[in-house]
Design brief:
Distance between the termini: 35 Å
Strand content: 25-35%
Order of helices and strands: EHEEEEHEEEHEHEEEEHEEE
Largest sheet: 8 strands, mixed
Structural class: alpha+beta
Length: about 290
């Protein structure tokens, strides 16, 4: 039996594109609360950046967008913005407190994370990783993660006296996390076909997967209910995210696996797009 092909360890998440109902309101939120800046705007689409060069988030305003209650359909649970160090996350926390919005939090052992929602209920995680050599693994080799209270006082102390100037250079999209309708079907697409590897499980309700031993590039859960339908196209949520691959050969190999397994693959202007079973788009790009 042939071993399942896996994604290269150099794989990274690139950008995320989401649908919003009111571009002006979302821009104010993502600039003032999250700390991104506008890189370029074309009509009702805006590219946002942390370093003035790399696009992390694209906002696309759609007509008459509906905003659903959280955890009601398959689609975006949250996209996760990874800052380079603990003082940076402390500054994020200070700004969120000053913005007077509801903030969730969790110490996941491998990382410290803060959780917020944008005005359209799109979930956002802002987090920092602990050093990889501090991550623990269980007897089966799974990454040990938990959800403990964050040391809020320690975060604030780590950023004491530092100025908030928005998200710093070195900030990236660290992972994406989706509601899916069925974990077995999600594993078949993302692990058996795309080539991610399972890093840990949360009972029978969530699966965490990655390339290259990262704690997770993707989370997949059935918290919107077993059999949850794909989000309709007129609802605020995710359009697509990008995977950055080290070579054209690696990109084409992934596309061929997806095509061979019977999933949708499209190509336009040199960009290969695949679509998961819940209509979430994934653009396969080659790292510049």
């Amino acid at each position: 039996m042939t071993a399942t092909a896996t994604l290269p360890q150099e794989l990274e998440i690139g950008l995320v594109q989401i649908r919003v109902s009111n571009l002006e309101r979302s821009l104010a939120f993502y600039q003032n609360v999250v700390g991104l800046t506008i890189l370029r705007q074309a009509g009702r689409e805006v590219e946002m950046t942390a370093d003035g060069q790399h696009v992390l988030l694209v906002l696309r305003e759609i007509d008459n967008a509906r905003v659903l209650r959280r955890n009601s359909v398959a689609g975006l649970y949250h996209f996760a913005i990874l800052v380079p160090d603990r003082p940076s996350l402390g500054l994020v926390l200070r700004n969120l407190i000053a913005s007077d919005i509801e903030v969730g939090q969790g110490d996941h052992l491998v990382s410290e994370a803060l959780y917020i929602q944008d005005p359209d209920n799109n979930g956002i995680e802002l987090y920092r990783d602990r050093p990889r050599d501090a991550w623990k693994h269980d007897a089966e080799g799974n990454v040990v993660m938990s959800t403990d209270p964050v040391d809020v006082e320690g975060l604030l102390a780590a950023s004491e006296g530092l100025p908030w100037t928005g998200l710093p250079a070195g900030t990236v999209i660290g992972h994406v996390h989706f509601h899916v309708g069925d974990l077995g079907e999600a594993k078949k697409f993302y692990v058996d076909t795309l080539g991610f590897e399972v890093t840990t499980r949360y009972g029978n309700s969530a699966l965490f997967i990655s390339a290259g031993g990262y704690h997770h590039h993707m989370g997949l859960n059935v918290w919107a209910g077993q059999g949850a339908p794909a989000a309709p196209s007129d609802v605020a949520g995710i359009d697509y995210f990008t995977l950055l691959l080290p070579s054209i050969q690696e990109r084409d190999a992934v596309a061929e696996r997806v095509r061979g397994a019977g999933y949708k693959v499209g190509e336009a202007d040199g960009v290969v797009t695949v679509t998961d079973p819940w209509n979430i788009g994934i653009k396969l790009l080659v790292k510049p």
